[in-house]
């Protein structure tokens, strides 16, 4: 349950946090130019504020939500769809509607793209891509107008009424009982930006300020805990670290800095709970509120979002929270033993990774018993090139010892749920952990020649010799039709004896060669360069296979592979590539040729000959 809540919280905050600058701009315009009450009242300039609140913020949130689910096409879908919500209920701030509509629209276009993958007629890709977003976006906007918008308006009205009841009856301080422990579970951003910010925006629209912005961002409760540790901790490391933590927490607004201090003595959480309770009670009695979200939660941001006539009230509220938290935390710290701070920081890092869904490789999946491994997945960014070659090479290597193991490849974001081991490059390990939390991760430098692959092979092979059942399982990803029936390497796509160039020039040359034989459009070459920036396409053994990103599929007209030979090598980081294969694939048509390339690399003598030969026929014979 905790993981599900954290995942939802991550999704909510993930839509708001990248756009927090827009919220701050909205708050500044209100604080500075509101008439009356602003620092520099200006009726003309303050008229900008309603447009930001009603249109800009919901569109930004929906676009971000769509992008998180459906990429750049999802971003456009989300922005279109939320306009239906806004138009359907123009009197309601649609921040919560945007949080629903954005991801939903992104999911719709993602599913459409999956259905169309490999089925678009050549030459119609751009037409289909553009019209699909336009048509589906229109449909989602209509759904937003008639369904999502009214539902979210009703939900917001119910929540706002509930908050008003809490405020009127003096019950709002009870929120601290749940809020402070939730912060230590790394739900602070989710609660603040996913719940309090939309409710606060609605209150600002009606009353000009909102107490909701003061509940989570008040730095006082954490300040009291850190002061207590500084004054009374018996552990020298903890005592010495507290002053620096106080500065980061109070002026930097990074509340997470005090979470390890709570974890050392969980009972200390009582201090922040009671401290925030008292502060919220004070804010409620004095009718305090902020003009916008104080992000990050520093004393500077807290005061900058305070109305000019309420500055003293905000300061007193922070002091109350800090003072009460300090008084309650101090005897607990003095009387109880504490964990080592390093242990608590390590625990916090693990909890934070879990909350973000990007746990470290070891926590992503326990180490598997080699005898129980049935599926090994090689994953790269697109699942098209490097992982395909790596999987082919490892499959050929292991099948004699462990025919019961399926070895295949996929995109790092689409690892199947039954994967036992995932092999990926180090830079992709967080995405792999999120995609396959059940699997053991093996992170490598390259897919063809890495010591960790040797260790993985030895582990699995030795388990097979130990009496593992070896029922033959044919690899599911090998197409029955041979690449020779669909020629994807042409004589015109082979260039030998090229002079050494830079990596970027070699990638561009491979892209131009693919373009010249009618495989890709102009945009694919740029996508190849972008792909290289994400993670190197150097495979090892003097071979590189640059290709485009998954977002560049619309630029691929037909499958093809080209080869450029650089006898003196091209620098790909710390390694030189003598053979540079440029690839573009529609569906799985190119996989057989990649398998042939991988098989050729098994023969060291042939590989060395390919790096120096001037015989194009040898190249075509080897890879057909």
Report on the architecture of this protein.
The chain has 624 residues and is α/β, with parallel strands linked by helices. The protein contains 25 helices and 9 strands. Helix 19 (429-435) links the parallel strand 3 (421-425) and strand 4. Helix 1 (2-16) crosses helix 8, helix 5 (95-116) runs antiparallel to helix 6 (125-168) and helix 7 (175-184) packs across helix 13. The radius of gyration is 29 Å and the shape is globular. The protein starts with a helix and ends with a helix.
Average pLDDT reading: 81
Total of DSSP H or I helical runs spanning 4+ residues: 25
Unreliable sequence segments: 356-364, 467-485
Strand order of the largest sheet: 5-8-9-7-6
Counting DSSP E segments of at least 2 residues, the number of strands comes to 9
Q: Helix amount, in percent?
A: 55-70%
Fraction in beta strands: 5-15%
Assembly type: single chain
Shape: globular
- Biggest sheet descriptor: 5 strands, mixed
Radius of gyration: 29 Å
Q: From the helix content, strand content and strand pairing, which structural class follows?
A: alpha/beta
Query: How far is the N terminus from the C terminus?
Result: 53 Å
């Amino acid at each position: 349950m905790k993981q599900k809540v954290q995942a939802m919280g991550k999704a909510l905050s993930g839509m708001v946090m990248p756009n927090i600058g827009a919220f701050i701009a909205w708050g500044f315009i209100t604080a500075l130019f509101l008439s009356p009450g602003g620092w520099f009242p200006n009726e003309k300039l303050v008229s900008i504020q309603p447009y930001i609140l009603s249109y800009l913020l919901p569109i930004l949130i929906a676009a971000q939500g769509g992008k998180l689910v459906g990429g750049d096409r999802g971003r456009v879908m989300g922005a279109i769809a939320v306009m239906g919500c806004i138009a359907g209920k123009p009197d309601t701030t649609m921040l919560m509607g945007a949080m629903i509509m954005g991801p939903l629209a992104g999911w719709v276009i993602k599913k459409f793209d999956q259905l169309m993958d490999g089925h678009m007629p050549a030459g119609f890709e751009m037409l289909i891509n553009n019209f699909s977003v336009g048509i589906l976006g229109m449909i989602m906007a209509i759904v937003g107008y008639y369904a999502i918008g009214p539902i979210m308006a009703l939900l917001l009205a119910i929540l706002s009424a509930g908050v008003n009841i809490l405020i009127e009856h003096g019950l709002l301080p009870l929120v601290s009982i749940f809020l402070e422990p939730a912060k230590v579970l790394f739900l602070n951003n989710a609660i603040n930006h996913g719940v309090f910010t939309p409710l606060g925006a609605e209150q600002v629209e009606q009353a000009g300020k909102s107490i909701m912005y003061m509940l989570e961002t008040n730095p006082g409760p954490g300040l009291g805990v850190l002061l207590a540790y500084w004054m009374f901790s018996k552990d020298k490391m903890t005592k010495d670290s507290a002053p620096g933590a106080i500065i980061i927490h109070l002026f930097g607004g990074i509340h997470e800095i005090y979470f390890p201090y709570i974890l050392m003595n969980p009972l200390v959480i009582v201090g922040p709970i009671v401290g925030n309770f008292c502060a919220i009670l004070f804010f409620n009695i004095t009718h305090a509120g902020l003009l916008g979200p104080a992000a990050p939660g520093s004393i500077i941001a807290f005061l900058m979002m305070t109305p000019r006539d309420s500055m003293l009230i905000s300061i007193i509220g922070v002091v109350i929270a800090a003072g009460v938290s300090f008084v309650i935390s101090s005897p607990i710290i003095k009387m109880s033993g504490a964990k080592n701070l390093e242990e608590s920081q390590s625990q916090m890092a693990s909890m934070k990774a879990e909350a973000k869904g990007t746990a470290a490789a070891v926590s992503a999946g326990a180490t598997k018993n080699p005898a129980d491994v049935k599926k090994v997945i090689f994953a790269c960014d697109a699942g098209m090139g490097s992982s395909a070659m790596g999987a082919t090479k490892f499959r050929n290597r292991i099948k004699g010892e462990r025919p019961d193991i399926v070895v295949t490849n996929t995109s790092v974001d689409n690892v199947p749920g039954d994967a036992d081991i995932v092999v990926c490059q180090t830079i992709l390990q967080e995405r792999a952990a999120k995609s396959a939390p059940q699997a053991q991760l093996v992170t490598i430098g390259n897919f063809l020649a890495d010591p960790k692959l040797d260790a993985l092979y030895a582990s699995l092979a030795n388990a097979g010799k130990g009496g593992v059942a070896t029922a033959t399982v044919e690899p599911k990803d090998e197409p029955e039709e041979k690449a020779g029936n669909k020629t994807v390497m042409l004589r015109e796509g082979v260039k030998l004896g090229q002079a050494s160039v830079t990596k970027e020039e070699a990638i561009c040359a491979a892209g131009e060669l693919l373009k010249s034989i009618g495989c890709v459009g102009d945009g694919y070459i740029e996508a190849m360069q972008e792909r290289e920036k994400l993670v190197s396409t150097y495979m090892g053994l003097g071979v590189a296979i640059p290709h485009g990103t998954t977002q560049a599929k619309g630029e691929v007209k037909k499958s093809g592979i080209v080869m450029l030979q650089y006898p003196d090598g091209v620098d790909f980081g710390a390694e030189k590539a003598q053979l540079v294969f440029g690839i573009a694939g529609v569906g799985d048509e190119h996989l057989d040729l990649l398998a042939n390339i991988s098989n050729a690399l098994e023969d060291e003598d042939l590989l060395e000959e390919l790096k120096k030969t001037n015989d194009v026929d040898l190249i075509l014979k080897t890879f057909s």
